[in-house]
Design a protein that fits this description.
Layout lengths: L12 H13 L1 H15 L6 E11 L8 H7 L17 E10 L5 E7 L5 H16 L4 E4 L6 H6 L4 E4 L10
Parallel strand pairs: 1-4, 4-5
Antiparallel strand pairs: 1-2, 2-3
Length: 171
């Protein structure tokens, strides 16, 4: 912390109270209601959904909690992971986002551990989204979706994905 700056200088009590109320109300529930209302109000078609992830690099000190402790507390682990920007020296977290094909309305957001791997999560994210929304639509995702485990999870869904050129079958 910079010289002369005390923790109490960074306290924003009204914002903290609002964030606590949002958390108590259930962020997932709120995040589902808001985009559904917006999509309905503006006539956004819900016939396709797109899934992708982004990594966010962070600077500074972050505790070294274990994945198990983080999972029990509901917190993510900000840690070293696969760096798309070739910066293995920076810690990161991952943001998984599902949005409508029409209007690019964000519909589902998951903040995840810094070492999350897309190919291990895309099927789970789609299955969870499908269960919450109960909408039959086309799912669109990048090559990490195309794994045996993911395809088993989404066997009853309509989906399209790019097959990675590194797979033997694609060659």
């Amino acid at each position: 912390m910079a010289e002369g700056i005390q923790p109490e200088h960074l306290n924003d009590e009204p914002l903290g109270r609002v964030l606590d109320k949002l958390y108590d109300a259930g962020l997932t529930e709120i995040f589902i209601r808001v985009p559904l209302s917006a999509a309905d109000r503006f006539g956004v078609k819900m016939d396709s959904f797109h899934l992708d992830s982004s990594s966010f690099h962070v600077h500074g000190y972050y505790g070294t909690g274990t994945d198990e402790a983080s999972a029990q507390s509901g917190l993510i682990t900000i840690t070293y992971g696969y760096s798309r920007d070739h910066r293995p020296d920076l810690k990161q977290f991952i943001l998984d986002l599902m949005w409508s094909g029409d209007g690019d309305i964000p519909l589902s957001l998951t903040v995840a551990h810094g070492h999350e791997v897309d190919s291990a999560m895309f099927g789970t994210l789609m299955a969870h989204f499908h269960k919450q929304w109960q909408i039959d639509a086309l799912f669109v995702a990048d090559a990490p979706l195309y794994t045996e485990d993911n395809l088993q999870m989404i066997v009853s869904f309509r989906w399209v994905s790019r097959v990675s050129a590194t797979l033997t079958a694609a060659k």
